[in-house]
Write a structure and sequence with these properties.
Length: about 400
């Protein structure tokens, strides 16, 4: 495994306040230096940061990284978090790769077009019920805490079929506390047993009917859920982008057929800080003029890649007609997010409704002053937005 004698001199990630619609200046600077370079994580470890689109996509296509490590206790870490510890698939890269494929094979059918069509009606209903409540209260609201979060959490619980939305979400978002991990799995096992006695059109029911054991279902539900914690942050960023760019808001209202293109542009710009899941090199990898050593921590930053000027000219311009738009918001290859169809449905329903039901949507603070979650020790899988004050 490669080492660096001067870790303290490496650039430190997550050290600047994020701004919606802009690539972090540090990441822009690092991207301009090299497509792949060493950085220091918030745990003080060194890692290879990949910020350029071409190199990131190449790594994802080749599949020479996995979420495993031959020496887990001494591996470099991106964040000191039980969420990432739980997702580690062991010490053997080949076994981890096989486990990853089995996981995808079991879950991909659950996001088939038939199920998504059923869920769309429920998503649309949740969107409009939440907007009904907001519109009844008056022309000022926090569309992150009062819209993005409850909508996303409700959609996730509908997908799974868990009976107690508040308990599940509270536990899930509290998993940065190691003491909470066991509680989450105990609750999910109970939820699976309850759902087996009360079947419905949901993931728990389908896995149960396929004969998957209770404990395995609980683990799969937890694993599916972590990526969905990103969705409310992306929705809020997209809402802020439309509010800050009334010409794009009005264009979508006039031309609703642009909704798919609009969702893609929101997804491209939907993060406000580095967006990575840590992986480890399963072999020495030569790319971007450097050699990543076996076992080294690799951070494929989809956020930076989606602002790569070599692929997305004028990348900080919000343009719902941008084409082509080959963003990597859902990653790529075997790492492509299996929940992407549901996330796109939710965003399409949200923005179609917002531009018609809140046609004057506008921020009540400058975009640079949108409140952000800046706790340096927090694990914010959902992104950095803390509140989204708007009027209409």
């Amino acid at each position: 495994m490669s080492t660096a004698p001067d870790v303290e001199e490496l650039p430190l990630l997550r050290c600047q306040r994020p701004v919606v619609g802009r690539l972090d200046p540090l990441l822009r600077d690092l991207q301009s230096r090299a497509p792949v370079l060493k950085v220091r994580t918030r745990t003080g470890d060194q890692a290879w940061l990949v910020t350029r689109y071409a190199e990131l996509r190449q790594l994802l296509v080749e599949g020479r990284m996995e979420n495993a490590h031959p020496d887990p206790a001494n591996r470099a870490r991106y964040l000191d978090s039980p969420v990432f510890d739980y997702n580690l698939l062991g010490t053997d890269f080949d076994e981890a790769r096989a486990q990853h494929r089995e996981f995808r094979a079991a879950l991909t059918p659950l996001f088939a077009a038939r199920r998504m069509a059923v869920l769309r009606d429920g998503v649309r209903d949740r969107v409009h019920r939440l907007l009904d409540g907001l519109l009844a209260k008056g022309p000022d609201a926090d569309l992150h805490n009062d819209f993005s979060l409850p909508l996303s959490h409700g959609v996730l619980c509908d997908l799974h079929g868990v009976p107690d939305e508040q308990t599940f979400i509270s536990m899930l978002t509290g998993m940065d506390d190691p003491a909470k991990v066991g509680e989450v799995f105990a609750y999910l096992a109970e939820a699976v047993v309850w759902r087996q006695a009360n079947p419905g059109p949901d993931v728990i029911t389908e896995l149960s009917e396929a004969g998957v054991p209770v404990e395995q279902i609980a683990g799969l539900i937890a694993t599916i859920s972590f990526p969905f914690l990103v969705t409310p942050g992306v929705q809020s960023v997209g809402t802020a982008l439309f509010a800050a760019h009334p010409e794009q808001r009005d264009l979508l209202a006039r031309e609703p057929g642009l909704i798919d293109s609009a969702v893609d542009e929101v997804l491209r710009m939907g993060q406000v800080e580095e967006s990575v899941m840590p992986r480890y090199a399963a072999e020495d990898i030569t790319i971007g003029g450097v050699t990543i050593g076996y076992g080294d921590l690799v951070l494929c930053d989809h956020y930076s890649a989606n602002y790569d000027e070599l692929v997305f000219p004028d990348s900080e311009r919000f343009d719902i007609t941008r084409a082509p738009n080959p963003h990597l918001a859902f990653s790529h290859g075997i790492s492509h997010c299996i929940g992407a169809p549901l996330a796109k449905i939710q965003l399409a329903e949200v923005f179609s409704a917002l531009v018609t039901r809140m046609p004057g949507l506008a921020l009540t603070v400058p975009v640079e002053e949108i409140p952000m979650s800046m706790d340096p020790d927090a694990v914010k899988l959902g992104g950095g937005i803390a509140a989204l004050p708007v009027t209409w």
